[in-house]
Design brief:
3 helices
Length: 78
Amino acid sequence: MQNFFLMRMINWMATKLDGYKTLIGGLGLICTGIAGVIGKMFPDSGLPDQEMEYIMGQFSLGFVALGLGGKAEKIIKK
């Protein structure tokens, strides 16, 4: 019974966020990169000290997700 309500809630959220999920994911990856840069610049801020390759990877993956999401929306609308 608990699984039934959980699945209904997840399905409801997925339909409400349809078209915005890729945007949210891309922006989340970019924010992870920004948090990594802040953690690198200010080590006493409490943010994790990440490697620069990981930080740049998060930025690039965020922009890739945003770009692919835009292309997918164009294809769906045709």
